[in-house]
Amino acid sequence: MKKRFLSAGLAVVMAASLTACGGSDSASTTAAAAGESKAEGESAAAGESSAAADGAVFKIGGIGPVTGGAAVYGLAVQHGAEVAVKEINEAGGINGAQIEFQFQDDEHDAEKSVNAYNTLKDWGMQALVGTTTSAPCIAVADKTAADNMFQITPSGSAVECAANPNVFRVCYSDPAQGTASAKYIGEHKLASKVAVIYDSSDVYSSGIYEKFAQEAPNQGLEVVDAEAFTADSNKDFSTQLQKAKESGAELVFLPIYYTEASLILQQANTMGYAPQFFGCDGMDGILQVENFDVKLAEGLMLLTPFAADATDDLTVNFVKSYEEAYGETPIQFAADAYDAVYIIKAAMEEANVTPDMSASDICDAMEGVMTQIKVDGLTGSNMSWTEDGEPEKDPKAVQVVDGAYKAME
Questions:
Q1: Which residue spans of the chain are classified as CATH 3.40.50.2300?
Q2: What is the pLDDT, as a whole number, of residue 232?
Q3: Do 70 and 123 meet the contact criterion of CB atoms below 8 Å apart?
Q4: What is the predicted pLDDT for the residue at 20?
Q5: CATH code for the structural domain at 5-171+308-393
Q6: Distance between CA atoms of 130 and 141, rounded to whole angstroms?
Q7: In which band, very low, low, confident or very high, does the pLDDT at 249 lie, cut at 50, 70 and 90?
Q8: Is the C-alpha dihedral spanning 256, 268, 226, 303 positive or negative?
Q9: 242: part of which helix (H) or strand (E)?
């Protein structure tokens, strides 16, 4: 089948091209400019009010934490997806049909995530954007596999998240992030001696650490200290920081989430320890931590495929729409979700699916074309997918400068 190339939210389009023609010989499918769209963050079901008059709509669900300690991630995913849904609906929908989008809160809890999935399935969901975090995603992926429901997780990075043939992901897997981080640090000569502080009770953190440690020697990096903590001991990091300091590490690698990272930066500052800190996509959100002095994050680097200050039209338009709708600058998780919705659109159009098809038939059709489509999105150009659900795109990094993320070369 011919590959389809989708430019998510491309600014310059002709009116005649706004109606989707799945499976056609068209060289590309385009959507309305992000700058001309304003997402409606007040609704958990964006697109419902503009559903096609005949009721023929695609029902796309989303799952993530919008309350609790990981709410920054889930809200970003919800809002990023809503921006994409609004754009697509205003541009004519998918194969001429509108999208209804509903997002459910799972509080970063596996059992609650399964409950959220069942709620969406009862609603009539035909494809899932989610879940947002890894442990809930693994639990839900078993359910979507049993139901043969198409699933694309924007940010579930554990290997197990995409273990089933119906599940794909936008972000890198944990092992890929670990390997890519070591390569980036080594190739850019950021340090030669590295310490690591990681969460041994978390599949995301421990998975990244394992591959980082394997790749580090290949990049001329010496891991001089590796300190673990668990979910039951994630408040006081003085011991880990002191050992990292004594090891002579020039850089401390933090493959952890932003909540613990903010505490580490605060405690390092208190003890006068100021190495270079480097994290992965779980670090994204640290600038939004309540009562956190963002000056402590100055110089922090993180491996992430999205920088809100990028000057390409797609990013500029997306950031504008997002800020207008939600009053804040989008983080990577929002960009991942935005791309996830456009990936669903690309696959649905390539497979020429229609809203009257069952979720299982839609899944079969989309799964069959995922290795053929290419998507030009916020988190990567010319993105493609392997048969095991993994994305292929180049890694990027950002650094906190003057309280904001700045793209690094």
A1: 5-171+308-393, 175-304
A2: 95
A3: no
A4: 28
A5: 3.40.50.2300
A6: 9
A7: very high
A8: positive
A9: helix 238-246
